[in-house]
């Protein structure tokens, strides 16, 4: 086990210890001084900061890798490395240059964020749900899983608060797989791996060990894992294990790197019947 992997495991164990101590202390009525309960939380935060800082290591110095887009049709970008790096506010899980995109086949076709109501929406209300995802280059599948459920959207004020304050921390404690949900990792060669996150349950068309060709359909967009709505989370990284991976910059052939709010169109006929 690498030092980085061990640090990530210790990070989660510290948070778990904090939760257990807090619950036990509240239930039993001050078993120990409160500062003792806070010790594992402080350790978890410190470890997280140290691991995140090291995430901007050698892989961040690599030139952008040109690949094809992972989707077809009309989409727009949300979190994007064109606006800031790290794009998601953290280097963790290889997300330094990650991008989130949502389908918008027509203007106004995507439900807007609401502060109060409706609290949540069905995934089928979002045009990205079920959209085909394609291989960005020739490669080999090294990780593939699609057994997690697609939960309702988190695109209201109360639902987003629940995601940020309760769901996301619990998922982080459980490990990377619970953050990315159903996901797929391709080995593109030369120490470059492509990750697709939040896939639709049961939609994988490939499995670990399969060889794929650029443009081949791999799965469908879903809303599993730490996700506010059906969308595609895509990133390049230097290792297939998200706990130790470091982000690699990318550029999509014919598109570049869309900035937040930018509409772009990806060619191809894979989604013609979608």
Structure description:
There is one protein chain. The protein is α+β, with helices and mostly antiparallel strands and 274 residues long. It has helices at 3-28, 34-54, 157-174, 176-180; strands spanning 65-67, 73-77, 99-103, 132-134, 139-145, 183-189, 192-197, 211-212, 217-220, 232-237, 247-248, 250-252, 263-266. Strand 6 and strand 7 form a beta hairpin. It is globular. Mean pLDDT is 88; it is low at 269-273.
Question: Top keywords for this entry?
Answer:
274 residues; 26% helix; Glucose Permease (Domain IIA); 9-stranded antiparallel β-sheet; 2 domains; alpha+beta; two-stranded parallel sheet
Q: Regions with pLDDT < 50 over 5+ consecutive residues? A: 269-273
What is the CATH level 1 assignment of the largest domain? Mainly Beta
Determine Rg (CA atoms, Å). 19 Å
Label the CATH architecture of the largest domain. Answer: Distorted Sandwich
Elements, N to C (H/E): HHEEEEEHHEEEEEEEE
**What distance separates the N and C termini?**
43 Å
CATH topology of the largest domain: Glucose Permease (Domain IIA)
Q: Which percent range fits the helix content?
A: 25-40%
Sheet with the most strands, sense and barrel status: 9 strands, antiparallel
Question: What form results from the Cα inertia axes?
Answer: globular
* Protein structure class: alpha+beta
Strand content: 15-25%
Tally the beta strands: 13
Helical segment count:
4
């Amino acid at each position: 086990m690498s030092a980085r992997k061990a640090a990530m495991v210790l990070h989660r164990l510290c948070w778990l210890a904090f939760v257990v101590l807090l619950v036990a202390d509240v239930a039993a009525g001050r078993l120990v001084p409160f500062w003792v309960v806070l010790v594992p939380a402080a350790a978890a935060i410190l470890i997280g900061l140290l691991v995140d800082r090291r995430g901007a290591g050698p892989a961040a110095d690599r030139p952008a890798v040109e690949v094809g887009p992972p989707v077809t049709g009309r989409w727009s970008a949300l979190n994007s490395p064109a606006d800031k790096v790290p794009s998601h506010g953290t280097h963790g899980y290889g997300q330094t240059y990650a991008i989130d995109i949502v389908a918008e086949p027509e203007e106004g076709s995507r439900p807007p964020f609401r502060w109060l109501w409706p609290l949540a929406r069905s995934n089928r209300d979002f045009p990205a749900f079920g959209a085909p995802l394609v291989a960005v280059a020739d490669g080999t599948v090294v990780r593939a899983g699609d057994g997690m459920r697609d939960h309702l959207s988190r695109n209201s004020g109360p639902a987003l608060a629940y995601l940020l304050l309760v769901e996301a921390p619990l998922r982080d404690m459980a490990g990377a797989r619970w953050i990315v949900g159903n996901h797929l990792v391709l080995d593109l060669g030369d120490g470059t791996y492509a990750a697709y996150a939040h896939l639709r349950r049961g939609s994988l068309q490939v499995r670990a060990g399969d060889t794929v060709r650029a443009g081949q359909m791999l799965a469908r967009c879903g809303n599993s894992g730490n996700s506010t709505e059906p969308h595609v989370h895509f990133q390049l990284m230097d290792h297939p294990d998200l706990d130790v991976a470091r982000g690699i910059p990318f550029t999509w052939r014919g598109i570049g790197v869309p900035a937040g709010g930018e509409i772009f169109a990806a060619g191809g006929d894979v989604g013609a019947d979608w």
